Amino acid sequence: VNLSFDIDHIWRPFTQMAHHHAGILPLVKIKKAKGIYLYDEKNRPIIDGNSSWWTCNIGHCHPKVVSAIQYQAERLDHVMFAGFTHEPAQNLTQRLMKLTPPTLEHVFYSDDGSTSVECALKLATQFWHNSGEPQRKSFITLSRAYHGDTVGAMSLGSTDEFHGPFDPLKFKTIQLNLPCYDLPTETHHPDEDAFLENFQKELIKNKETLAGLFLEPLILGAGGMIFYPPRLLSQIVQLAKQHDVLVIFDEVMTGFGRTGKCFSLNHIEEAPDILCLSKGITGGTLPLAATLVSKSIASAFLESGFRHQKTFFHGHSYTANPIACAASTAAIDVLMSENLISPKNELIHMKWLSYFQNSTLPLSNARFLGHIFAITVTLNPKFPEPFSYVMLKLALERGALIRPIGNMVYLMPPLCISEAELDTLFGILDECLNSYFKSFRS
Ligand SMILES: Cc1ncc(COP(=O)(O)O)c(C=O)c1O
Fold it and tell me: Which of 297, 285, 246 is nearest to 73 (CA)?
């Protein structure tokens, strides 16, 4: 099948298809993948600089995950999960409970990041309903948050450039503006006290109606890799808990090692009431998500007799798919046994941080946390072609997948990348930025 058939008939996510038709945006056929590399039709290696949309944390086609998938596919492909169970779901649940705070004792499985967030949203809403406080149904969120593309997840987010046309479908939330930190470790920001004061005011003002607080903890990903420090996260969680508001962490992006610890929640003492996981959960092999909740929340859904007033009426056909669960258990075991989480490339990150901070190019706010590095680029509005397209093409020519979001360029390769490979990836990024600015100067 040729590429023009593909472009004519297969719709791409987040893509203006006319740009493919016009040839402005390349469509690259990938034949295979191994470790940190994707291979195109000519067998050219391409470093997966964004872990294929942040999913592939342990490297592509890890043999242990591949054989777990093969083993499971030969035994049980799928069974409906209401009234039935299987070992892969039990094994995975044990792993997740071991990795997360002891208070999160119940796991609800779904299919992707957005569905894990929808589950969290509905669980939090119904929790208050079942507890006799149905008026508690509003949520506090962060400006620039991104929680996914389903209607509930879009409502909780505030990335209008993605979701503007869907405004009529979205429900309102109370949005907080985080202070702008230069570095994730910044000690104290002048706007921090005002931020916390405002947050507290909202908690008090809306105490009758608030259900929960949704956070992307430590890093707002798709909203621009906006970092904020663990100290502030911890203060936010404490305040919410003091005011009896459910705290929901969306760790779809940050989970499974990205921040240098298994989860963002491992950077603080407090635990959320609800935790959303997906992406790296299967090492990037199969779609799966989990929403973990505390016992006190789960207990509010129990009732005796034959009525169904408290039942959580939510589910997906592929809930806890056995092959995906087996892949996830194997991927988590690889993540742990190969000790991939604690960053071993800190020196390379530090070297390039200082390099980009001292660059004469119009770059700002170079920053990193754990395995995520980002820079903000001042774009020339007169340059017609989107920055992300130019960078994507320049990087592909040089053997890497780098796909900026707006004017924010970031690197988030699989955690198994070696120092030398990471250095090469940074070198490619540097060449691409230089080439981009050279082209618009001439
Ligand atoms: C923090 C966060 N939540 C939710 C999602 C949605 O995940 P999915 O694309 O798997 O639906 C994303 C996706 O990037 C995300 O970064």
Answer: 285
Work out the average pLDDT over 95-114.
98
E strands, 83-209, where?
Answer: 104-110, 138-142, 174-176
Beta bridge partners of residue 376, listed in sequence order: 364, 408
CA of 20 from ligand 1 middle (Å) equals 24
146 Cβ inside 6 Å of ligand 1: yes
Contacts of 57 (CB under 8 A, 6+ apart): 51, 256, 257, 258, 279, 280, 283, 284, 331, 335, 340, 414, 415
Q: With cut-offs at 50, 70 and 90, classify the pLDDT of residue 335.
A: very high
Contact 365, 353 (CB under 8 A): no
Whether residue 159 is predicted with pLDDT greater than 80 in this model: the reply is no
Q: Cβ(275)–Cβ(265) under 8 Å?
A: yes
Cβ of 327 less than 6 Å from ligand 1:
no
The maximal CA–CA distance of the chain, rounded, in angstroms, is 76
Whether ligand 1 lies within 6 angstroms of the CB of 250 is answered as yes
Q: What six digits make up the tokens of 80?
A: 């409906």
Average of per-residue pLDDT across 266-272: 98
Q: Is 193 left (phi over 0), alpha (psi -120 to 50) or beta?
A: alpha
Q: How far is CA 293 from the centre of its chain?
A: 19
Beta-bridge partner residues of 60: 35
Section 167-181 average pLDDT: 93
pLDDT higher than threshold 70 for residue 381:
yes
